[in-house]
Amino acid sequence: MTSYNDDSKSKFYGKLPTGDAVYSYKLKNKNGIEVKIINYGATITSLKIPLKTGKIIDVVLGLDALEDYIKSYEIGGSPYYGATVGRYSGRIKQGLFSLNNKVYQLEKNLNNHSLHGGNIGFSQRIWEVKKFTYGINPSITLTYFSPNNEGGYPGDLELELTYTLSENNELSINYIATTSEDTIINLTNHSYFNLDGHTETISNQDLYINSKTILETDNENVPSGLLLKVDSTSYDFSNAKKCPEKIDTSFVLNKKNKIAASLYSEINNLKMIVFTDQPSVHIYVGGKNDDLLMGKENIKYKSNSGICFETQNFPDAPNHNHFPNSVLKKNETYLQKTVYKFEI
C-alpha cells in the first residue's frame, strides 16, 4: 500500500504492463478530510473523514493496489471504482449514433451496446498531472488527450479535470474539454459512497433525490426515450428513505434547485449533499463485487456496499433528439461541475 508523509504531494503507486508509472496524490484540508487520487483513470481511491467522535472513516469503495484496479476491468461487469468515465458515460444503444449525417460505430463492451466509453475508456488511461496546489483549498488538475477515433469517437479531445477539496468540506470536480471536430461527450465520476464507512453496507442510510421523473429503459437498461413520473412508486425519493438494495436508474433533476441528491448516515451523523449542473444523476447500487476482487483493507464488498451518484447527461442522448444536447462542437468548450459536500 502507498504510504505518505503529511507534506508529500505524490507517491509511486505502481506500473502498468506497458511500463507506465502510476502515482497517487493526496489532498487534505484544515478539517482533516483527506482524498487520494491516482492518475490511472483519474481515480478516487479513498476519501477519509474525521468524525466528531474522533473516528476516521473512509467513505468510498476502492482497491488496495494498481494490479487490483487493472484486474477489475478484466473480470467483466467492472465496478469502475472511483474512476473518471468517458468519452460517453452510460449506454449507447448498439454503439451507434449519427452526427452531421454520418453514422459512427463505437466499441461494444456490454452485450450489443457501448458502455462508459468502450473497451478502454478514460477510466483505464494514464492522465498527466498538470498542476497541484497545497494549503487552503488544495487541488489537483489532470489532463488527458483522446485521439480521433479512440473507441470509435470522432475528434481529438483535449480534457482537463480538476479535483478541489475546500475548507468547507466540499470535494468539487470540474471538467473542461475541447475537440478538433464535432463529437459527443458525457463525463462523470463513478465513486461508490458509504457514509458508514467502506466496510459496511448502505442499507441504513437515507437517500434523497431531487427528481420527479426517471428515464424509462428496456430490458437491457437502454433508454426508450420516454420519461416516467415517480409519484407513488419505489423510485420516488423526493422525501428521503432508505437506500434501495439494487438500482440502476437515471433520474431527471429538478432544474429549480442545484441540489441533485443527498445521503445521510444516522450512525455517524454524517450527510453528503450532491450539487451539479448536469440534467440527471444516475443512481447505481448492485455492482459486481465478486470473489475475483477483494476491496481495500482486505474487505469483501457486497452488492450494497456502496451507492454511485453519476451526475451526467442522459444515457443514449445522441439517439434521442428531445434529450439534452450531447454534442460538443469544434468551436465550443465542454464545461461541467459536480460537488460532493460533507456535513459532519
Short structural description:
The chain is an all-beta fold. The protein has 1 helix and 28 strands.
Question: What's the structural blueprint in terms of helices and strands?
Answer:
Layout: E1 10-15, E2 21-28, E3 34-38, E4 43-50, E5 56-58, H1 66-72, E6 84-85, E7 91-92, E8 96-99, E9 102-105, E10 114-115, E11 128-133, E12 139-146, E13 157-165, E14 170-179, E15 183-184, E16 188-189, E17 192-193, E18 206-209, E19 211-217, E20 223-229, E21 241-242, E22 247-253, E23 259-265, E24 270-276, E25 280-285, E26 307-312, E27 327-328, E28 334-343
Antiparallel strand pairs: 1-2, 2-3, 3-4, 4-5, 6-16, 7-10, 8-9, 11-12, 12-13, 13-14, 14-28, 15-27, 17-26, 18-21, 18-23, 19-20, 19-22, 22-25, 23-24, 24-28, 25-26
Question: What keywords describe this structure?
Answer:
about 350 residues, mainly beta, six-stranded antiparallel β-sheet, 28 strands, disordered N terminus
Shape: globular
Helix content: under 10%
Low-confidence stretches: 1-7
Q: Please provide the ordered H/E string of secondary-structure elements.
A: EEEEEHEEEEEEEEEEEEEEEEEEEEEEE
Describe it.
It is built from 1 helix and 28 strands. 46% of the residues are buried. With 344 residues, it is mainly β. The chain is 2% helix and 43% strand. The strands form 7 sheets. A 9-stranded antiparallel sheet has the order 11-12-13-14-28-24-23-18-21, with no helix packed on it. A 6-stranded antiparallel sheet has the order 17-26-25-22-19-20, with no helix packed on it. It starts with 9 loop residues before the first strand and ends with a strand.
